[in-house]
Amino acid sequence: MRTTRLEAFSDGVLAIIITIMVLEMKEPHGTSLAALRPVVPVFLSYVLSFVYVGIYWNNHHHMLHAAERVTGAVLWANLHLLFWLSLIPFTTGWLGTSWLEEDRPAPLPTALYGVVLLCGAIAYVVLQHTIIQGNPAGSTLRAAVGRDMKGKASLAGYASAVGMAFVLPAVSVAIYVAVALLWLIPDRRIEARMRDV
What we know:
Layout: H1 4-24, H2 40-66, H3 72-86, H4 88-102, H5 107-133, H6 140-145, H7 149-164, H8 169-184, H9 189-196
Helix pairs in contact: 1-2, 1-3, 1-4, 2-4, 2-8, 3-5, 4-5, 5-7, 5-8, 7-8
């Protein structure tokens, strides 16, 4: 099976996830700058989650572009990834509103946000591995992924941030931001391999 249908379906789901997140943001009550203050934590959690969904969309696109074929196992692995990503709007909303109520990130919402990010990252690794297994031994994706140090560093960051959320939730949020920044630097491994083919 070709990758185009899988990519189109995934793009649609990711677009819906972003739409749900923005619809969860409520307009401020009042017309002054002070009325924006209560919206700031919710907006910041939205921005972070928007960046994460964008990172997944970008890397998912490149990964599927490098795949030569899609198997049934890849379809299920992709749904597994989309399941975890579909929980981002819920955890984003809870993180933002709890931050608003307590004037700082609350431990449980901060930890749950990290659990969803960790499970999404694990699901991405599973999808990547499943695609590699379903494609020829010398596939572009296999060569491009290599040891995937960036992916392993992300998993370690998320895991440490989940535990840290119950001690210093603000540090956990800083770790989530740091991992996002790590992925904002374009990962050109697949693009470079595609040019060489």
